[in-house]
Amino acid sequence: MEALAVIVLVLIIIVLICYKKPDPVKVEALRIQRQLEVEALRKEELLKKIGPISPAYICPHCKEKGHVHTIHVKRKKGVSGAKVTGALLTCGVSVLATGLSRKEGLTQAYCENCNSTWDF
Ligand SMILES: [Zn+2]
């Protein structure tokens, strides 16, 4: 009977050790660090997507200067008729190589001040 009590006591101690409350300062520091990492990663991904700020560019929507990101992008612009004909003639071989849609290079702009996106 006493042995059982000891075992239960040991189990309780183990559980208490395992579920010991973590140091709130450490937890907060870790949380902030993780948040900063996530923000840095997000910013990096965002910059890859919207490009760097063009300081001289004035936003046509809010007329603010220095908030516009620009990046050169290639965008699919509908299905090219010539390519469809080519696909029919070559039984689709050319489609594998080039795809049916044309790609057009343009500059995509994003204003972080008024959150507008436009192409030019
Ligand atoms: Zn704007």
Secondary structure: elements and pairs:
Layout: H1 2-18, H2 24-50, E1 68-79, H3 81-89, H4 93-98, E2 101-111, E3 116-119
Antiparallel strand pairs: 1-2, 2-3
Bound molecules: zinc ion.
The site of zinc ion has 9 residues, from loops.
Give a description of the structure.
With 120 residues, the chain is α+β, with helices and mostly antiparallel strands. The chain has two domains: 21-50; 51-120, no CATH class. 49% of the residues lie in helices and 22% in strands. The chain contains four helices and three strands, in the order ααβααββ. It has helices at residues 2-18, 24-50, 81-89, 93-98, and strands at residues 68-79, 101-111, 116-119. Strands 1-2-3 form a three-stranded antiparallel beta sheet. A hairpin with a 4-residue loop joins β2 (101-111) and β3. The longest helix is centred in the N-terminal third of the chain and has 27 residues, at 24-50. It is elongated, with a radius of gyration of 29 Å. The model has no long low-confidence stretch (mean pLDDT 85). Bound molecules: zinc ion. Residues 59, 61-62, 64, 67, 111, 113-114, 116 line the site of zinc ion (ZN).
> Which geometry do the CA atoms define?
elongated
* Helix-strand category: alpha+beta
**SSE order, one letter for each helix or strand:** HHEHHEE
State the distance separating the first and last CA atoms: 84 Å
- How large is the radius of gyration? 29 Å
Q: Helical stretch count?
A: 4
Outline the biggest β-sheet. Answer: 3 strands, antiparallel
Using DSSP, what is the number of strands?
Answer: 3
Taken as a percent bin, the fraction of beta residues is 15-25%
Q: What fraction, in percent, of the residue positions are helical? A: 40-55%
> Would you identify the regions where 5 or more consecutive residues have pLDDT less than 50?
none
Give the averaged pLDDT, no decimals: 85
Provide the spatial order of strands within the biggest beta sheet.
1-2-3
Ligands and ions found: zinc ion
Number of domains: 2
